[in-house]
Amino acid sequence: MTDRNPMLSLLPTLVALAGTAIFASIAIRTRKSRRPTEVLVPIEASEYALSAVRIVRLKILIAVIAGILVAISLNVAPVPALHLGLGATIAPGVGAIVTCLVISTAPLPRPVGASTIRQADLIPRSASSFGPTWGLVLPLASAGVLVSFLVATAVLSSTDERGLWRQIEQWTPGGYEDATPYPGWFYVVPLLVVTALLSLFVLIALRRIAGARSLGTPQLDDFDQAIRRSLTRFVMLLSSSIIVLYLGAAAFTAGSATRTVTQWSKPSALFFKQVEAAAANGTDPTFHVKAGDFIHGVVQPEYTAAAIETTLGIVLIGFALTLSFLAMSSVRIRWTAVAPTQANHGESVPV
Amino acid sequence: VISVDDTNPTPPFEQIRAQLENQIRLGKLTNGQRLPTVRQLAADLGLAPGTVARAYAELESEGLIETRRGAGTRVSLQSDAYPEVLDAAIEFAEAARARDLSLEAAILALRAAWD
Questions:
Q1: Contact (CB<8Å) A211/B40
Q2: Cα R_g (chain A), whole angstroms
C-alpha cells in the first residue's frame, strides 16, 4: 500500500456531492408535475374504467410484493462465509428487476362488448412517450452517478486478509489503518452488473407499457394514456429509488470505513519515558495507561470528506425512501364519468 | 386513426393498406411522418403482426412508405393534394354528416356542384 493522491481519496465524496446536487435540482424542478391530470370517460364506460384502475393497482401490488419477496429471499438465503453480504448487496436491485418483469406482463383487457370495428391511432408510441422529461433524466443521472461513485471507491479499495477487494487502507502517523466493509471490487462488480440489468429491464418494461395494445376505442384514448403514464411514472420512480438507495448505502458504508481508517492514535513521548524508566529500575514495566500516554489525531482532509460522505449517504437513503413512497402513490388515475359528447368531441363509439 | 371492420369482406391487410394509402395521398399523413411499428399497429387492431407487415410491404412496394433500420417506417410520398382543398372537403363532409346525408348522396351533391 502506497500513499494515495489526496485528490483521488476525495473523488467518491465529490461524486456523491455532485449526485446529491443533481437529485436535489431534479426534485425541485419536478415538484409541480406530480399531480396527474383528470381524464374524462364516457358514462357507459365508467364501470370498465373502475375495474381497469383496480386491475392496474392490483398488478402493481403483486409486482411490489413479488419484488420484496425476492429481495427478502436473497437476504436470508444461506451463502458461504466468504461471500457474506453479497446477497444483501444485490437484493434491492434483483427485487426491482422482478417488479419490472411483473409490470411488463399482460396488458389491460379490452372493454366488454366492444364494436366489431377496431380502431388504432397512427401516432407511434415508444419507451419515452409517456414519461415526463425528468422521468428519463432521473434514472439515467442516478445510474451515471452510481457507476462513477462505485468505480471511484473500487479504485481506492484494497484486499483484506482473505484476498478480497472489500477494505480500505490508509497511512496515518500512527501506522497503517484498515477497515471493512468498504465498497471495493468485491461488492462493486455485482452492483454494476445488477445496475446494468436493472436499466435493461426498466427499458423493457417501458417499451412494453408503451407497446401494449390500446383499449380499441377513441373514447377511451385519454384514459388509456393516463394508465400508461401512471405505469411509466411508477417504473421510473421505483428504478430511480433503487439506484439512489444503492448510492446512499455505498456512500454511507464508504464514509464510515474511511472515517475509521483516518483516525489514528500512537504512544506519546511520556509513554516511552515511563517504559524506559521501568526498564532501568528493573521494575515491572507494566503500568496503567493514563490519559496523555497516547496522542490521537485524524488525517485531513480525508476525515472531513468521509464525514460528509456518511452524511450524504443518510440523506440519499432518505431521498430513495421518498422516491419509493412517491412511486407507490403515483398510481393515481384521476377520471370522471361524463356524457359521451364531452368525452370525445361529440363522437359516440360503443364501449 | 385507421380501423378494421370484422364484418367487411375485404381482407384486413387490404383495409389497412387502402386507408393508409388514402391518408398519404390526401396529405393527412405527410412526407417523412413516422408510422407506428408493425407490432404496435397489430396489437391495437387485434391482428397478427404478419397482416400489418403485409400492408406495409405493399405500401413500400408502391413507394408510399419506406422502412429503414433504426429509423422506423416513414411516409415517403409528398402528397399532391392541396391542403385548402382537403380542408374544404372535410368541411363539406362534416356539413353532409350533420344533415344525415349518406356518402353516396354527398358525392352526388359534389358531382352536381362540379358540373
A1: yes
A2: 28
Q: How far is A128 from chain B (nearest CA, A)?
A: 14
Give the one of A117, A123, A211 whose C-beta lies nearest to B3's C-beta: A117
Burial class (CB in 10 A: 0-12, 13-18, 19+), A91: buried
Distance CA B95, CA A178 (A): 84
Can you give the pTM of this predicted structure?
0.79
**Cis peptide before A173, with omega less than 30 degrees from 0?**
no
* Per-residue cell: A190: 455485482
| ipTM of the prediction | 0.74
Which of the 8 DSSP states describes residue A159?
E
Nearest chain B CA: its distance from A59 CA (Å): 20
Beta carbons of A213 and B36 less than 8 angstroms apart: no
Collapsing DSSP states into helix, strand and coil, what is residue B72? strand
How sure is the predictor about A245, in pLDDT bands with cuts at 50, 70 and 90?
very high
* pLDDT, tens digit, 9 for 90 and up, residues B27-84: 788 888 899 999 889 988 888 999 999 999 999 888 888 888 877 888 887 666 677 7
Q: CA B31, CA A131: separation in Å to the nearest integer?
A: 27
Contact B44 A214 (CB under 8 A): yes
Q: How many CB pairs under 8 A join A and B?
A: 57
Cα A207 to its chain centre, rounded Å, is 21
Contact A335, A39 (CB under 8 A): yes
**Least confident piece of the model among A87-91, A185-189, B3-7:** B3-7
* Lowest-pLDDT choice from A6-10, A162-166, A180-184, B42-46: A6-10
* CA separation, residue A282 to residues A27, A50, A106, A286, A290 (Å): 71, 92, 86, 11, 21
All residues at 6 or more sequence positions from A239 whose CB lies less than 8 Å from its CB, including other chains: A96, A100, A139, A198, A199, A202
Residues of A in contact with B51 (CB under 8 A): none
Gap between the Cα atoms of A207 and A261, Å rounded: 46
